[in-house]
From TrEMBL:
Family named by the database record: Belongs to the SCO1/2 family.
Protein name: SCO family protein
Every Thioredoxin domain range: 54-220
UniProt KW Ribosomal protein keyword: no
Keywords: Copper, Signal
Species of the source: Streptomyces daqingensis
Amino acid sequence: MRKTRTLSAVALAATAALALSACGGDSGASGKGAGDDGTAVASAEPQKKGGTVLDKPFEKPDLTLTDTKGEEYDLIDETEGKPVLLYFGYTHCPDVCPLTMSNIAVARSKLTAEEKKKLKVVFVTSDPERDNPKELGSWLRGQDPSFVGLTGDFDTIQAGARTAGISIEPAYKKKNGDVVSTHGAQLLAFSPKDDKAHVLYTEGNTSPQILEKELPKIIKGENP
């Protein structure tokens, strides 16, 4: 049986500078226990397969944004007492974002009907200037119609992401016209028992096989 690794904020902070990159390609930021500066970091140890259990879980971001129907969505209120997968990314991302969401969709399809009903998957755009509700909704329906998509003011999104240890930066256009968006690529799993993120998945650790195996425990409020 695989032993779950519990990471300390100190070990995680050691590689903060290595964890964030631009998309495309976005490879993303990392995870950490909730430290002092709020930036996203990853473990300095060799990465093991599966979710990482945080020694200090993250509170759920206090975000009130706009969903794909154009309606106000209070993340804390709407997901209270439910298992939640939270990811920050954007629809024009050429690599890590669509792959991560596709992997979640495949893993979710393997769950029981009851497990599917309980699980909330929330995608918050890191590029709200381009990802309006219609654009976001169209993109997410291609992944899984049950996924919740949120957009809004960038500063609000950035501040909320930082409270969960995820770093995102404003998108900018290069001389050749390409738009670059830098964002963390970690996936956070919140427990239905206390609404805190106890488990973090880094890029490369969100395969359908890993998620299919570990999501049933997360849905129950257990650590994988």
